[in-house]
Amino acid sequence: MTALILNLSPAIELTDEQFFQLCLNNRDLRLERTAEAELIIMPPTGWGSGNRNGRLTQRLGNWTDADGTGLAFDSSTGYKLPNGANRSPDASWVSRERLEALNPDPERFLPMAPDFAVELRSATDSLKTAQRKMQEYIDNGVRLGWLIDPQNQRVEIYRQAQDVEVLQSPTSLSGEDVLPGFVLDLTQILN
């Protein structure tokens, strides 16, 4: 099953509040909205992708707890990007400094791009769509992004003002200067 994309414009113009309420009223659905006002309804993943994503989120969360400089988020966290899109990366991280400066309502979508975002491609995800989404994150301020692609046994690394780096069958990934000291062991995530 692939994502369903509804082009609402110009027939329906959802305000940010209406989109938020739509998400609250349909908690069993994973909804995103593009900058072009398309509504994306994503199907649940299979158990293999769910297990990989759980491990990814757990490992990022463990590092975050030990490090203390930011907060880690799972795939249910919504971000309102500067371009107007509402996105939910599979895993993400935001520095405490940025959160405290903004002081956003914890019951709402974060009105910012995360510092770090990960997309874990499931068997039904289009590679091109995932790549466009990663580029959108970078274009909106994400400093480091990983597209983990188990189907092709590779990882694409996205950074500000740099070409995408492609790694074939890496065993681990570094959080670089965005997540200093974080090394993601890809055992049971990429394989």
List keywords for this structure.
3-stranded antiparallel beta sheet
Task: Give an account of the 3D structure.
The chain starts with a strand and ends in a 6-residue tail after the last strand. The mean pLDDT is about 95. The chain is of the alpha+beta class and about 190 residues long. β8 (about 115-120), α4 (about 125-140) and β9 form a beta-alpha-beta unit. The strands form four sheets. Strands 4-7-8-9-10-11 form a six-stranded mixed sheet, sandwiched between helices. Strands 1-3-2 form a three-stranded antiparallel sheet, with no helix packed on it. Strands 5-6 form a two-stranded antiparallel sheet. The protein has four helices and 13 strands. The longest helix has 21 residues, at about 45-65.
What is the string of helix and strand elements?
A: EHEEHEEEEHEHEEEEE
* Number of helical regions: 4
Beta-strand portion reads 25-35%
Rg (C-alpha, Å):
16 Å
Unreliable spans are none
The percent range for helix content is 25-40%
